[in-house]
Amino acid sequence: MRVCEIIKAMPNIRIRQLNTGHCRPMKSLFKFLLLTVVFTSMTWASSESIESTAGTQPQPQIYVLVHGASGGAWDWKPMDLLLTSRGHEVYRPTLSGLGERAHLATKDINLTTHITDVVNTIVYEQLEQIILVGHSYGGMVITGVMNQIPEKIKHIIFLDAAVPNHGMSAMDLWPTMAEHPVVDGQVFFSWLIKGSEAPHDVPQPLATLTEPVAFENPDAHELLATFVPFINDETAAAVRSVTDPSWKNALSRNWPVHSLVSDHNAQRSHRKELADLLELVIRPASE
Asked: What percent of the residues of the chain are helix, what percent strand, and what percent coil, each to the nearest 5?
């Protein structure tokens, strides 16, 4: 496989200082991918790169943070406190059957239930012009929210999250989820810690992962959105950008990509950097 073949498979990549008329061997792949992907189609976020924005006070925003699979609002409390301390308004709905609502878990809870959890939070709190943020599985949920109430949304941010097409389920994007054991309609993920005390990750209803999402509303397709993958390094990013279905979907929609060097749970390990990035990606280019 040659570099030019990889590049042709990467939609919406602006090529700079690269002649693809001559195919180079595989050993040059990462060098060329870094030139084309890392420096032209995405922004890298770290404590150093975000530091340049320090000192500029962003406008207060309304953030609605949607957690990932097996989690809960509890996992985003530190991020809530951090963003609130910066003058923002933050909401953290817990999805049905998870977190402090784990006692309500049934096999009948599905993706529609979780979408409704977030839609009702927005509607009953009478929120407008929100920044809707979804982490991991939360990308499935916020996609459904986009489809239902696009008029309430100012910007959407997918944090290392699922970016499904219309009619796709979480299992479609992540087939390996089928490897987790299911007991009484609940998925017991491999990362659950048996005997741990709350707050902690809990099993999740299987139907939330198998129900396809609707994303056919033209107004939802016009919303401003940003994809933020959490990556280990530049090499990992180069590979994921051409293999990760969610990353490829984001690029195909012409969404900007801002990568954050972090593990999958930046809300735990890189809170300040993540808060800086949540403010940065929604700023007008003129700022």
From this structure: 45, 15, 45
Residue 287 has pLDDT above 90, yes or no: no
pLDDT tens per residue across span 174-201? 999 999 999 999 999 999 999 999 999 9
266: left (phi over 0), alpha (psi -120 to 50) or beta: alpha
Kindly list the structural domains of the chain, giving each domain's residue range(s) and its CATH number in brackets, ordered by start: 62-237+263-280 (3.40.50.1820)
pLDDT digits (tens, 9 = 90+) for 205-217: 999 999 999 999 9
The C-alpha atoms of residue 263 and residue 12 are separated, in whole angstroms, by: 26
- C-alpha dist (Å) from residue 155 to 129, 159, 185, 208: 8, 13, 34, 24
CA 252 to centroid of chain Cα atoms: 16
- What pLDDT is recorded for position 57? 74
DSSP 64: E
The DSSP secondary-structure symbol of 37 reads I
pLDDT of residue 58: 83
- Give yes or no for residue 21 having a pLDDT over 90: no
CA–CA dist 150, 121 (Å, integer): 14
What is the Cα–Cα distance from 91 to 86, expressed in whole angstroms? 15
Q: What angle in degrees, to the nearest 10, is found between the helix axes of 111-124 and 138-148?
A: 60
Helix residue ranges per DSSP H, 92-215: 111-124, 138-148, 170-173, 207-210
Kindly state the percentage of the chain with pLDDT values over 90: 76
Helices (H), 70-110: 77-85
